[in-house]
Amino acid sequence: MEIKSLDQNLTVSAQLSLLDLAELARLGVRALVCNRPDGEGADQVNFAEIAREAEKHGIAARYLPVTSGKVSDEDAAAFGKLLDELPGPVHAYCRSGMRSTTLWALVQGKRKQPLTKIISAAKAAGYDMSGVTARIAGDDSGHALAQYDVVIVGGGAAGIATASSLLKRTGDLSIAIIDPADVHYYQPGWTFVGAGIFRPEHTAKTMASLIPRGVEWVKAAVAAFDPERNTVILEGCRMVRYKRLVVAAGIKLDWDAIEGLPETLGRNGVSSNYRFDLAPYTWQLVQNLQQGRALFTQPPMPIKCAGAPQKALYLSSDHWLRQRRLAIDVEFYNAGAVLFGVADYVPALMKYVEKYQAKLNFGHNLVKIDGDSKTAWFETTDADAQVQRVARTFDMIHVCPPQTAPDFIRVSPLADSAGWVDVDQNTLRHKTYDNIWSLGDVMNAPNAKTAAAARMQAPVVANNILADRAASEGRRSSGVAHYNGYGSCPLTVERGKIVLAEFGYGGKLLPSMPTWLINGKKPSRTAWLLKERMLPPIYWKAMLKGKEWLVRPTITDN
Questions:
Q1: Which positions fall inside the Beta-lactamase hydrolase-like protein phosphatase-like domain (predicted)?
Q2: CA-CA distances (angstroms) from residue 116 to 47, 237, 412, 545?
Q3: pLDDT tens digits for 290-316?
Q4: In this structure, is residue 439 part of a structural domain?
Q5: Residue at which a domain ends, from 378, 402, 426
Q6: Residue 510 near residue 486, CB atoms below 8 Å
């Protein structure tokens, strides 16, 4: 018997044997609910036998049989009543535990528990509730808030760029962008904010000002997906239906994964350029530090902009060197094994590591911070494969948080085993659901998670959505576009120079400029001017407007 916990009061399992009752009693179970009709299986113990054995162990037993595949609202109401009446903890069982879990989920939905929390708890127990998501949310009638040709989840760089690229190609689509945020951020600019180069307000605009004309903005958070019914379920249990779906939900910065970090962010010398409100504090710390130890951290991959943690190191160190603050020890703690994932760029970066006399510590993952004592703890594995915890004091620390897919993505039927949206890495189409595409940080193609990658992906997705529509209508399309994994990471090695890393799948170099103009393997002032002067307007006025300069998709399949 494998017992699965759904909440503090309820566990579930597959069919019980008489011998299992003693174990349930030992675990403190006080009541039992059978959701499997007698006679359903040849090897099934009848409920009467189970009830007699349960009574011997002081466990109350109730029979609430539910036919497989036919869990009704009345069944759920009766199950909820039993949960209220019976002494807890309660254990429910059926053939596999699925019916019992479905009943519980429906009860929780009626009681207005957060949908994501319900689905997540069920998934953690091994039960997929995607088939009853709409019912859990309170709608099984087909009623929806609205229906669109294309629904885009996420109003970040990837989502808005995709909407604009679609509109550039056709004007006869109804498109909605779902996003609860009021402000849209140019996140690549935060490294410069943390170095005193950009003002923070220059990296933010209102979402309303950026939603393309002709696209409806659904200002709400997504709770779940029901791809079998082509439905997105919003918080508050509203429904949005689609013909085709684009998931561009971004990435979750998991600050809580580091013990003590949330309590000390923004004070005690602890900062991060990964948050709009903290990047100015980074610059404040850099300016004020006269001597001592400065730590810079990088968590396990994947993270957005894998070069950002060391960019903070380089720009900070450059400032200290220019100010002749030679009594500052700089240390880089990277959970990974290399300085940068594409080896061609490492020699140029190592010259700056040596210039700034920065100490590199690979295989060190930040797990805890105590801001008051200015101490950070890292886990590392020694030569005997034993995990050791190493403490390091600091005067300043720049933290890059661990990152995961958003919670509502990880528990959805769209996710792979690691929680990312599961797509074909070439077409960016979902591997299971033919009318769903994904791009940006949230999907699982093995490319760098950067704004430059999203800029390249958006036209590919737009083209392929329209190619799919044409095929479904019996019309000839221009063909299917393939994404080559392109991503760009402008590594700001000093104020005024950048190593412009541009690469695709497998680390293949994909320079967008001729080498006489920008040689990506060497620090370049031209690349700095590109980053400082050109990329912000390209982002605001080209990428988000559907202008595909240098990123028009190549059709590889007609």
A1: 4-109
A2: 34, 11, 9, 33
A3: 999 999 999 999 999 999 999 999 999
A4: yes
A5: 402
A6: yes
**In this structure, what DSSP letter does residue 247 have?**
E
Q: Do 263 and 394 have their domain in common? A: yes
Local structure of residue 178 (DSSP, 8 states): E
The verdict on 259 and 395 lying in the same domain is: yes
Q: Which of 335, 369, 402 is the last residue of a domain?
A: 402
Q: With contact defined as beta carbons under 8 Å apart, do 21 and 49 qualify?
A: no
Question: In terms of pTM, does the model score above 0.70?
Answer: yes
Angle between helices 157-169 and 451-472 (to 10 degrees): 40
- What was the pLDDT predicted at 237? 62
Same domain, 234 and 291: no
One of 34, 94, 305, 400 is an active-site residue; which one? 305
Q: How far apart are CA 286 and CA 431, in angstroms?
A: 46
In the structure encoding, which two tokens stand for residue 171, read together?
Answer: 């004007």
Residue-level pLDDT at 80: 95
Range of the domain at 87: 4-113
The reply to whether 489 belongs to the active site is yes
What does the pLDDT look like over 348-378, one tens digit per residue?
A: 999 999 999 999 999 999 999 999 999 999 9
- Residue 237 among the catalytic residues: no
Instruction: Tell me which amino acid residue 154 is.
Output: G
The CATH number given to whatever domain includes residue 465 is: 3.50.50.60
Is residue 303 domain-resident?
A: yes
CA distance 192 to 200: 9
Helix (H, G, I), strand (E, B) or coil at 303: coil
